[in-house]
């Protein structure tokens, strides 16, 4: 029910798997490496590592899949695959429409992604017009102010603090697809709209303020934001 949701003034967006269809590209890159060692990087593994920085996810994968490979070697192979795959990134349904709607209605928006600067640039190379709508972008993978990655709240607190009016975290609405990101947003004292991948086991969606199937289904007025006109 709408009465459960508090009104917000600012919106903060994750990128991978929420705005862009990059999660399938990540899965492909990981499996190209793990399959070479006879191992599969499954959705169960993915659910636990979404939102991690590259180094963290490399260490986690090597340990849990018992891969005979060093973290440096894993990362090196990953980055090479990213260069090949990431320029294929496309917007997910409803992403452009929502960002443009918020921008047109002067709702401050920011990006908070675990991606590094290089990774961000590969993914958004053909999509810069829409990414320029953000007031600012916090690239967790290479931002010195983001001390700890998701599920820690750092990235969302940094994103809120960089708006000129420094809103209270409770006035910020986070959009996420990943369990670690949802946890980070809730820990930051923010409400979180989750758009999980249909493959994600349901138990990973329980902490979100609201769960929707697609950004197309989001109704801004439920959080006190201007409604869509059409």
Runs with pLDDT <50, length 5+? none
Overall mean pLDDT stands at 94
Share in β-strands: 5-15%
The chain-level structural class is: alpha/beta
| Strands in their spatial order, largest beta sheet | 3-2-1-4-5-6
Helical content stands at 25-40%
The profile of the biggest β sheet is: 6 strands, parallel
Question: Which word captures the global form?
Answer: globular
Features:
alpha/beta, 230 residues, 9 helices
Task: Outline the structure in words.
The chain has 230 residues and is an alpha/beta fold. The protein has helices spanning 23-35, 43-49, 54-65, 71-85, 95-104, 117-124, 128-131, 154-161, 179-187; strands at residues 10-13, 109-113, 136-139, 172-176, 191-194, 210-211. Strands 3-2-1-4-5-6 form a six-stranded parallel sheet, with helices on both faces. Helix 9 (179-187) links the parallel strand 4 (172-176) and strand 5 (191-194). Helix 1 (23-35) packs across helix 4 (71-85) and helix 3 (54-65) packs across helix 4. The radius of gyration is 17 Å and the shape is globular. The mean pLDDT is 94.
């Amino acid at each position: 029910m709408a009465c459960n949701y508090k009104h917000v003034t600012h919106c903060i967006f994750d990128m991978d798997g929420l705005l862009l269809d990059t999660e399938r590209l990540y899965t492909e890159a990981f499996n190209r490496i793990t399959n070479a060692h006879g191992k599969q990087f499954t959705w169960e593994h993915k659910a636990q590592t979404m939102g991690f920085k590259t180094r963290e996810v490399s260490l986690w994968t090597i340990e849990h899949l018992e891969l005979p490979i060093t973290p440096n070697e894993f990362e090196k192979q990953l980055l090479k695959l990213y260069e090949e795959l990431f320029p294929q990134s496309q917007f997910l349904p409803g992403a452009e429409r929502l960002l443009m709607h918020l921008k047109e209605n002067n709702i401050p928006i920011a990006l908070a992604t675990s991606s590094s600067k290089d990774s961000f640039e590969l993914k958004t190379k053909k999509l810069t017009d829409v990414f320029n709508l953000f007031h600012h972008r916090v690239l967790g993978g290479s931002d010195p102010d983001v001390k700890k990655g998701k599920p820690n709240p750092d990235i969302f607190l940094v994103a809120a603090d960089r708006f000129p009016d420094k809103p209270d975290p409770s006035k910020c609405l986070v959009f996420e697809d990943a369990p670690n990101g949802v946890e980070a947003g809730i820990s930051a004292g923010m409400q979180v709209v989750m758009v999980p991948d249909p493959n994600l086991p349901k138990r990973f969606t329980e902490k979100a303020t609201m769960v929707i199937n697609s950004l197309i289904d989001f109704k801004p007025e439920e959080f006190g934001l201007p409604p869509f006109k059409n």
